[in-house]
TrEMBL record:
Site (Lowers pKa of active site Tyr): 88
Active site annotation, chain numbering: 63 (proton donor)
Superkingdom per UniProt: Eukaryota
Binding site for substrate: 118
GO molecular function, one term: oxidoreductase activity, acting on the CH-OH group of donors, NAD or NADP as acceptor
Family statement: Belongs to the aldo/keto reductase family.
Keywords recorded for this protein, A-Z: NADP, Oxidoreductase
Signal peptide bounds: none
Limits of the NADP-dependent oxidoreductase domain: 23-276
Any single Pfam family the record assigns to this protein: Aldo_ket_red
Name of this protein: Aldo-keto reductase family 1 member C13
Length: 295
């Protein structure tokens, strides 16, 4: 197996900052319904991830895991300049500044590297969506967030945002895997210079079996001496899509890092893409995306 990349690659954002291509997520399995009560298992998992080099940590106000991220970072003593911390606002869209300051307090940080509006679905009008983005721009200007972006936005949401935006979103974090490839949306990202980050990149392996990519994943895993999960992560990375994944097991976290040590060839990337288009599967936000389910 070719050892092409053993250090964490990064993607240059449209604002000049860089985002690590592989991130450790604290949503999904770690999600808590309310604040209060520390999850020591999560703190330990984050510390393990940091030890292994997952300096890109992804959290959100609605996950109720920011406190654990903050404690793990402090206990790990990782220099701030090595970290890339993402969080998101969901509940407090009428007070985005207050929400970010509350998040920073829990994270024990002076700023986040990337701050995202978690979804467009709670906005009642185009004006609300646009005003929220203007607030995000002011938070970037104030230095509370190095980069600002969105999550779960579709082309129509980006179009509305860009009508009044002074700053183009640096990133749109979306569910992305072979069964949900967002062709038209990624075209918009490319046109506007917006980076794509993927949550649920392992969906074809973990949630959507059986499916048309199963046999190819197995074949490629054997070829590159990795697991199918690493093939799924590499498929994202090879398309300049940042991959956010998670685990509570050190061995699995370590295995995921092997996705940095090989590269799929263009024919393999294309074959996964074409087989993936034979099936549609959405694992998250199903009700909210009901009207645009093929997007």
């Amino acid at each position: 197996m070719a050892n092409l990349q053993t250090t964490m690659p990064s993607l240059k954002l449209n604002d000049g900052h860089s985002i690590p291509m592989l991130g450790f997520g604290t949503g999904t399995a770690w999600y808590k319904r309310s604040e209060g009560g520390l999850d020591r298992d999560l703190i330990d998992a984050i510390k393990t991830s940091l030890k292994l080099g997952y300096y890109h940590q992804d959290c959100a106000e609605v996950y109720c895991t920011e406190q654990e991220v903050g404690i793990a970072i402090k206990e790990s003593s990782v220099p701030r300049e090595k970290l890339f911390v993402t969080t998101k606002v969901y509940r407090e869209l009428n007070d985005i500044e207050g929400s970010l300051k509350a998040s920073l307090k829990k994270l024990q940080l002076d700023y986040v590297d990337l701050y995202l509006i978690h979804s467009p679905f709670k906005f009642k009008s185009d004006e609300e969506l646009q005003q929220a983005w203007a607030t995000m721009e002011s938070l970037r200007e104030a230095g509370l967030a190095k980069s600002i972006g969105v999550s779960n936005y579709l082309p129509q949401h980006l179009e509305k945002l860009m009508k009044t935006a002074k700053v183009t979103p640096a990133c749109n974090q979306i569910e992305f895997h072979p069964y949900l490839q967002h062709g038209p949306l990624l075209d918009v990202h490319k046109k506007l210079g917006i980076a794509t980050a993927a949550y649920g990149p392992l969906t074809a392996v973990s949630k959507a079996r059986p499916g048309p990519v199963d046999d190819l994943y197995a074949k490629l895993a054997k070829k590159y001496a990795v697991t199918e999960s690493e093939i799924a992560l590499r498929w994202c990375i090879d398309q300049d899509v940042v991959a956010i994944t998670t685990s509570g097991k050190e061995q699995r976290m370590s295995d995921y890092m092997r996705a940095l040590a090989f590269k799929l060839n263009p024919a393999e990337i294309k074959e996964i893409k074409e087989l993936g288009e034979e099936k549609h599967f959405r694992g998250f936000w199903k009700a909210q995306f009901a009207e645009d389910d093929r997007s």
